[in-house]
Description:
The complex is a heterodimer. Chain A is an alpha/beta fold. Chain A has one domain (14-243): Rossmann fold (3-Layer(aba) Sandwich). Chain A is built from 7 helices and 10 strands. The N and C termini of chain A lie close together (10 Å). Chain B is of the alpha+beta class. Chain B has 4 domains: 1-56 and 266-394, no CATH class; 58-245, no CATH class; 403-479 and 669-811, no CATH class; 482-664, no CATH class. In chain B, helix 13 (443-478) packs antiparallel against helix 17. In chain B, 45% of the residues are buried. The A-B interface holds A 25-27, 62, 65, 67-68, 91-92, 95-96, 98-100, 104, 106, 110-112, 114-115, 119-120, 122-124, 126-128, 133, 172-173, 175-176 and B 2-4, 6-7, 10-11, 14, 290-291, 293-304, 381, 383-385, 388, 402-405. The complex binds adenosine-5'-diphosphate and magnesium ion. Magnesium ion (MG) is lined by residues 57-58 of chain A.
Amino acid sequence: MALQPISPNPNPALIELKDVVKTYSSEAGDFTALKGIHLQVQPGEFLGIVGKSGAGKSTLLNMITGVDRLTSGEVRIRASGQEVSVHSLSENDLALWRGRSMGVVYQSFQLLPMLTLLENIILPMDLCGLYHPRESRRRALQLLEMVEIAEHAHKLPAYISGGQQQRVAIARALANDPPILVADEPTGSLDSVTADHIFDVFESLVQKGKTIVMVTHDMGLMPRFSRHLLLTDGEISPPPASLSSASPRPKK
Amino acid sequence: MRPRWRKVFLDLFENKTRMLLVVFSIAVGVFSIGVIAGAYVIIENDMSASYAANQPANIELRTADFDRDFLATLENAPDIAEVEGRRVFNIRARPLQSQVWTTLNLVAVDDFENNTVNLLTSLQGASEPAKREALLERKVLDELSAAVGDDLVFQLSDGSTQVLRVAGIVQDPTTGADDFLAPPIVYVTMDTLPYLSQPEAFNRIYATVETGENDDAHIRLTAADLADRMERGGGVDVYRTRIALKNEHPLAPTVNAVLGILMALGILIVFLSSSLIANTLAALLNQHLRHIGVMKLVGGRDNQIFAMYLALILAFGVLALLLAVPFGGIGAYQLSLYIADQLGFTLLGYRIVPFSFVIQMAVGIFVPLFAGFVPVINGSRITVLDALSGDLAHETATRDAAGRRRESVFERLENWFDELLLRRGIHLPRPLLISLRNTFRRQNRLLLTLFTLTMGGAIFIAVFNVRTTLFDYMDNVGRYFVADVTLDFDKPYRLSEVERLARQEPGVVDVEGWAFAAVEVLYPDGTLAENLTVLAPPAGSEMISPDPVAGRWVQAGDTRSIAITEGILRSFPNLKPGDYLDVKIAGNEERWQVVGFFKFIDREGLIAYGTYEYFSRETNLANRSVSFRVLTDQHAEPYQRAMSEKLDKRFRDAGFQVSQARPGLSALDNATESLDILVIFLLIMAMLTAVVGAMGLTGTMGMNVLERTREIGIMRAIGAVDAEIMRMVIVEGMVIGGISWLLGLLLSVPFTYLLSYIVSLAVFETPITVVFTPLGYLIWLALVIVLSALASIIPARNAARLTIREVLAYE
Ligand SMILES: Nc1ncnc2c1ncn2[C@@H]1O[C@H](COP(=O)(O)OP(=O)(O)O)[C@@H](O)[C@H]1O
Ligand SMILES: [Mg+2]
């Protein structure tokens, strides 16, 4: 996992979180799930965010994807030649921006049940309008081949296994060829062999130049990331070491 | 197909029951609007066109006898285009093989070939009768069976009979067009009259005007002038003047008003079906939240999602249109045909009415869009997080400023109710409690469902009340028809003479001779305002039981005084008891006092009552009369009919010139019949609203059960059996039905008043007293119980059929 040596630009981080705080208000009172997160992700990194259940991992990812609003702080992302402050975008602009710049994979696959696998992959291209319909279809088939389920292209999600569904979800995340992939426990509901295969897919994507941020509560996966962070009770620990260093340390 | 449109397409058929409910409920509304709008346009056009095409007389005068020479003098009267004389009188007829007499209007026409006014359309056989032949207006065939070539027996006033052969069947859309309750017509030539013991003289003028044939005021003046020429110039008394426009059928306003009422109900149905659409879409979007979330996650924007669901709504609309538009077009024409047949005019031919087509399209497309707009806009604006976390229970919960959930009104009501029961030591069974709680869980959905069902019920109940109101009014009119037999003669007879003979018939209790006067009420400028028939029973007569709504009834000692129907207020809106009216009676102008008003059905002019004592002298018939009323010892219809026949025979045998003897209430039969038709149409519309209401409830129950699948699974897992689960769902449906019935109870009151007001204005031209009947309430109660049980049974069975595994796998 060679690190892409940094460009001369003094601040080239692809993803940058500055003092991100997220507080949930509910009937039971306020709960601060993220307590001032600072984080930078460089292009080409395979960043693992590891922590126990309830540590705030999903919350953190939601801040990066803009799926949920933060309480204070800022998230800046420099992708596709533009720099955006995620939380200053309107809901609509955010959707379009996310569709083009960021693929998201969830533990529960989130495929549309009435559409075939192929259609599920075409959908983001259809919605974002980056590709001509014929081109979309060709790309979708390619992506299916890449994740090795091209023979099931016209099946409905319910007729394939969980591991296969997650491959389709990954293919869908790649539909608009975004530079960034974000995954929330993508292997969490899969058996260990299948999980391993899925992880292989992510690794091969990193090799193709994608930047990946993955969340997991599985400590055993730590060695396989190019860098990992430990999230405990809404804080990154140990804070000083990884915050200052822009260079990830591969851990094996 | 692009994936998002394919999703729309698949969503359409995702849940067949839901699709059918939505499509049918839109279709029912579109269909009824299409039928009524189409019929409205067809009738509005064809009724008057078919009328105008037959050269309707603008002026009709009922006069004393006159001859051809005199008629010729009228041809040059100012602004008269065509003028024809005819002879019209009542006669009884029967087919050879039948014993049942039918009263007909016999019209003798001078020259069938050169007929220029009130043209006849030949339908069958000859278009001109020869001597001793007759043409039948096709309405005659509704009363008796006859075909071209058959012989009909006519009874003359001396009791003898004559046989005329039927030469042809014709249609006459103009004569008597203002009174579809008048007896049907038979046409003969003038030279047939002697065979019927009638003089070869005219007693009717039918004329058209040269200019201004659609100008009411102008025709009125021309008519007054013509009548003047007859009376002053020729000494021919004019009894009655009727005027009509060329291009408007006299009944068009009434028919339009009735169609207007049906239209209002149609619009209401559309309105109700839109609440079902709103409910269904809200539920559908709820179920689709996760899909929306996913689409937004991968780049979908609000307007894309919005467009997808609008497309879905449009598809529902288009499916409904495919169903409703063809049937609507056919229905419109069938309804027009029916009305045309009832009123005796012809349609110009089958056609699609563009206006109705456009209206149906607009309703089928825009109403669903409108109804679905709010749920769709809410659904498409939801954030990814809310959508994916899919916590949808927000709906019933309003939040206070701090974001805490507040109890809804329904929940508070329910808690209050629970406590109330508990304090009295009543424990509701668990499943029932769960049912009740479920009922109130989705507040908006419940409100919309209740609204639909309540409106449906209220209309249903109101229609029954209106029906009772109408018939009660007819009963009231019956107060003026207490006599069991009406005995009319062709010439006056002494009261004592008639009474003596009538009392010889066993069963006769009392006999009265009534005076009668046909007069014209004049405006202050001397022009005709209204035709008025004065009936004058002896003061204090037992044969009517008057019910004046203002002022008093006429009494002994009254001279030049009348009690008159409220219809007079059309022409004299400020008239009050004690005021005077200018009238023209037998050519003389007089001034009469109005002592009171009463309610009546005004046909062919207004009715007033005076006293025999005064009016018999006024008409030079003191102690004599042409019209008698007989009271018998029984009052059932068949008995009255039998007595009529017996009296008819007795008087003819004794050499009296009987015109006719009729059972007392027969005059009202036709009116009651046509009211029945109106009520049936109202009931059909009421049924349609009820059906839409029931579909709304079915939809709601289906959605409730679907959304509660997990909960049902859990109940099952803790041991609830099928029957319990089914009961839970059905009870819930019935609770909603029951509440809607209670609300409908209240809402039906204003509806009844409104509908009665509109209907009575359209039909009787006067508001009538509203009468309530428990019938509608009871029928609707039974119906709502059955409907809501039915509406819940399918969802309940589906719920009971779910296995635990399916339920827990449900997403
Ligand atoms: N919508 C919410 N409202 C209130 N608290 C929440 C909400 N979402 C998450 N939390 C809380 O925030 C903390 C972090 O949650 P999450 O980010 O989902 O943890 P993880 O993904 O690491 O398991 C948890 O304690 C959770 O209970
Ligand atoms: Mg999580």
